[in-house]
Amino acid sequence: MNxxxxxxxxxxxxxxxxxxxxxxxxxxxxxxxxxxxAYAADLWREIAEMGWLGAAIPEEYGGVGLGRLAVCVxxxxxGRAVAPVPFSSSVYLATEALMLFGSEDQKQDWLPxxxxxxxxxxxxxxxxxxxTVPERLAASVNGGRLTGRKLAVSDGDIADxxxxxxxxxxxVWLHLVDLSAPGVTREIVSTIDPTRSHARLAFSxxxxxxxxxxxxxxxxRTLLDHAAVxxxxxxxxxxxxxxxxxxxxxxxRFAFGRPIGSFQAIxxxxxxxxxxVELARSNAYYGAWAVHTGAAELPIAAxxxxxxxxxxxxxTTKENIQVHGGxxxxxxxxxxxxxxxxxxxxxxxxxxxxxxxxxxxELRTRNTTETAAA
Length: 374
Description:
- With 374 residues, the protein is α+β, with helices and mostly antiparallel strands.
- Helices cover 54% and strands 13% of the residues.
- The chain contains eleven helices and ten strands.
- It has helices spanning 7-23, 27-34, 41-49, 68-80, 87-101, 104-116, 218-252, 264-293, 298-324, 335-347, 352-373; strands at residues 121-124, 140-142, 145-154, 161-165, 174-178, 184-189, 198-207, 209-210, 254-255, 258-259.
- A four-stranded mixed β-sheet has the order 1-4-5-8, covered by helices on one side.
């Protein structure tokens, strides 16, 4: 079985890499880190013009129609560049929710604007520390009005609308809320990565439009599975960039008259980083196959991809700092950009521990089913 991308996807990857190398060098995330802007609005506009925001959106809804594999390819390159844009919130989550569960009118209304970059969407589920599972949700929708709060919503301060996970009296679990409407308040919150803004959202009778296809709690899990795969690719891209940075520094930094990369301790660190990145990439490819084909293995593939990518991101960005030594801990070095992003992405959509529990549950269910069938 060939898990590699098609020639078209590889060309898209090369184009994205060249574009981001030119438009999103380290100075761009550094500008957001050091300045007052919530995201790189100029870069976001250019990404929209490139058609990336509508990569997975069918052409009849104003998209490019390349499918979900294209989103995975783009996600890896955006992770490599630690791009300070709301791509994951708007594309992996809000757009995906509308494509999976939205009505025809909702798709016609929102998807063309998402593809053009005219609006930014996000997704809100977490309400308190701990596992972000449907059973723990306290926010609710009654009579088309949403009451409750959501914590640390990615890009919640800049988004135009949010897909909220909350049970409703009509049996629907996902609802669309216009963030400029009455009954919505936003409060910016600080996270480990200021290049990706977050906000606390409070709803007091805000108008909530149900996504009619999300009639069970399983809809939330399905959305998270679909989003976990491109998120894993973004994590792999970040990890790859951190490893490349460490490798380049080990070749140019001299100690005792020789490059530090010639010392065994440094060689072992970079070799371990390589192993982590390749394992994560392999699992991400498995997830891409599952989400592209709609395979029944998607819940398992998404969980495995998410776990491997989170572990690779943490390990490589941490080791990158160690390879740089004392300089790696300083503010002027870009090591922190990758470390911050890796830590943030590992918590988005739920932490690695939560995904491990989900993986165990999926394997247990499958084994039980197969045993009963036998």
